[in-house]
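tokens incoming
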């Protein structure tokens, strides 16, 4: 039986995309198509261990799934006119159209879906991965992936995305979305953004399989072949990218004898195909593949043609002028024309908000500084990079690089920024709200400048640069709050000029923003991609009129679901039927801990108080700041001039309802 189950699993991964694609063509609903395919899988799990594995397992699954589809259509009175046509198709055992799988790819990666939903749906429908497998790959909960996939299916149904191939003009744009998703999956496997391991090979292999499949389905698309070439060559280095303990090994230090020559040859072949079918001007994936080819052709690190790579990155920056491309270009310039050339470009990127918390920016800067013999600065940059990465293997590697740099330890002369910030916030005269507010400001300074930066070296210009990047576009009230925190910290630390470069902004006077009307609120909460947590929180605030902090302080064990109320400090929070319908799904069987939880478990250095930690999931209570940020992002379209709304507008909306749902406790 275990052998049978392994066979079923292997067949499903190979055939599921074709089966679901063929069913989608029949029923015109990707969600229903997957359900019907799953029914066929369940039938195989029940019958094959007893009756044996069929001679053609894929055909058996396809036939069974189609029979389920025909049964469903026969029950649907609206489609009775298709019965004879579909029954005849089943009898003829027609093979699924080759274009069906391409259509399914285009639907799974449709631009109407958020990027995360596209990746999850693609792995589910075309990769044959279970929800749990996808969750493990991206280090999130199975419930989060299930919600993401369900929301994506709802969006496709509500938007009536057709199961048709677009015309040639639109096909190129739609394929770009597919390529983006496949490369996103590959990169998450090649350089994991979080977790203990540097790589997740399963995701790399799945992305390669999807890329090769797409190359078969769209053989005349140069960028498709170019992406395959890029992934093949990058994957060829996998065995050499980590050391015996899983630590990262930099490209110039890798044992090139461990590079997979078969994958390199496959990459070269795909590159030749891309050039044969390509037009006059190369696309971004072709340029990136050309860079990978340069590395693969060099027999040693010293033989690398860095001048050509720098030129290719320059051309790529013309097509994709993104900060990440420019950062990679800086590395190549540093290798081709000296570290100062690379450092000049890196320093010009430091103020870009897109790279604000990107650990590779200080990592690259540290490498360039080390090559310029500016060791103390390099050490600080490597330590800062280590605090920004969420990957344990990469963090340990960066800390080792910092510790390996010879020279005087700059932290040996007085307190560091991190030490001073912790001491400042630990003062007994600060109330919790002030600690939280000041902590936000100082945390941003510590991330941007480094925990280990000597406090005495801190300058007003550095602080002003952090403010410009982090809060340059913020409202005057927000800017002034953070400015006040820096002034207080500077005064305490005897650095009175720390806020000298920060002018106070004039705050607008006048009435508060109006409450969200019922129509606006229903449109906001009716978005198909809105997570259940946000939908429940906003509905509760809108129905109760309670303060945001009071609602976020609610615990599962205190909820009275029958009476629709719960204690919050010295008050009661009550709700109506809309919230009552959402709460059971949000709680998902939990009986203890905070009602509203953050997306991730806290890191080892940021353990919350026991009262703010869910004992079942290990996640902490959703913070007020994060809740406000999510609402502002979601309401930008409602209030573009102000950059989004605050959650207080929901409380104002509750005041328009009858009755006011917040009362004092007896």
């Amino acid at each position: 039986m275990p052998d049978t189950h392994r066979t079923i699993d292997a067949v499903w991964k190979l055939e599921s995309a074709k089966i679901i694609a063929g069913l989608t063509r029949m029923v015109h609903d990707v969600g229903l198509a997957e359900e019907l395919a799953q029914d066929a899988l369940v039938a195989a799990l029940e019958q094959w261990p007893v009756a044996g594995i069929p001679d053609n397992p894929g055909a058996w699954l396809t036939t069974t799934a189609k029979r389920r589809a025909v049964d469903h259509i026969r029950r649907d009175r609206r489609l009775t006119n298709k019965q004879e046509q579909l029954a005849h198709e089943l009898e003829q055992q027609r093979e699924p159209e080759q274009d069906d799988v391409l259509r399914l790819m285009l639907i799974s990666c449709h631009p109407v879906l958020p990027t995360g939903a596209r990746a999850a749906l693609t792995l589910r429908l075309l990769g044959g991965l279970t929800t749990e497998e996808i969750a493990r790959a991206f280090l999130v909960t199975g419930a989060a992936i299930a919600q993401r996939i369900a929301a994506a299916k709802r969006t496709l149904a509500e938007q009536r995305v057709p199961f048709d191939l677009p015309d040639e003009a639109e096909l190129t744009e739609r394929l770009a979305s597919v390529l983006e998703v496949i490369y996103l999956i590959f990169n998450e496997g090649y350089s994991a953004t979080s977790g203990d391991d540097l790589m997740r090979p399963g995701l790399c292999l799945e992305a390669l399989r999807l890329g090769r499949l797409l190359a078969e389905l769209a053989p005349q698309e140069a960028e498709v072949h170019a992406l395959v070439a890029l992934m093949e060559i990058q994957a060829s280095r996998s065995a050499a990218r980590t050391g015996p303990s899983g630590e990262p090994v930099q490209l110039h230090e890798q044992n090139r004898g461990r590079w997979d020559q078969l994958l390199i040859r496959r990459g070269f072949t795909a590159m030749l195909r891309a050039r044969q079918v390509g037009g006059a001007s190369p696309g971004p994936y072709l340029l990136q593949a050309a860079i990978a080819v340069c590395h693969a052709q060099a027999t040693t690190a010293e033989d690398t043609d860095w001048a050509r790579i720098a030129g290719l990155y320059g051309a790529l920056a013309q097509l994709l002028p993104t900060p990440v491309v420019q950062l990679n270009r800086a590395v190549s310039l540093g290798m081709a024309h000296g570290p100062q050339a690379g450092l000049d470009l890196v320093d010009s990127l430091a103020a870009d908000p897109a790279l604000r918390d990107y650990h590779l920016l200080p990592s690259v800067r540290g490498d360039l500084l080390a090559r310029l013999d500016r060791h103390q600065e390099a050490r600080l940059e490597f330590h800062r990079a280590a605090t920004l990465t969420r990957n344990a293997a990469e963090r340990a590697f960066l800390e080792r690089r910092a510790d390996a740099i010879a020279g005087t330890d700059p932290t040996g002369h007085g307190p560091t920024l991190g030490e001073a910030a912790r001491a400042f916030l630990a003062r007994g005269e600060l109330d919790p709200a002030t600690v939280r507010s000041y902590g936000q400001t100082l945390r941003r300074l510590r991330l941007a400048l480094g925990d280990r930066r000597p406090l005495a070296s801190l300058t007003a210009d550095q602080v002003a640069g952090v403010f410009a990047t982090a809060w340059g576009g913020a409202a005057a009230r927000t800017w002034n709050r953070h400015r006040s925190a820096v002034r207080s910290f500077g005064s305490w630390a005897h650095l009175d000029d720390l806020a000298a470069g920060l002018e106070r902004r004039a705050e607008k006077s006048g009435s508060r923003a109006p409450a969200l009307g019922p129509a606006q609120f229903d449109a906001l909460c009716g978005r198909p991609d809105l997570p259940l947590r946000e939908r429940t929180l906003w509905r509760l605030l809108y129905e109760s009129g309670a303060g945001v902090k009071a609602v976020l302080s609610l615990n599962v064990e205190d909820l009275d679901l029958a009476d629709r109320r719960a204690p919050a400090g010295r008050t009661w929070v009550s709700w109506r039927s809309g919230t009552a319908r959402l709460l059971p799904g949000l709680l998902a069987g939990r009986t203890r801990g905070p009602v509203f939880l953050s997306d991730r478990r806290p890191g080892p250095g940021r353990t919350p108080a026991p009262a703010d930690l869910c004992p079942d999931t290990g996640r902490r209570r959703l913070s007020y700041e994060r809740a406000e940020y999510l609402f502002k992002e979601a309401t930008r379209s409602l209030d573009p001039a102000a950059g989004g709304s605050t959650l207080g507008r929901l409380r104002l909306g509750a005041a328009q309802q009858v009755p006011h749902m917040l009362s004092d406790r007896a």
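note: Confidence is low (pLDDT under 50) at residues 91-96, 658-666.
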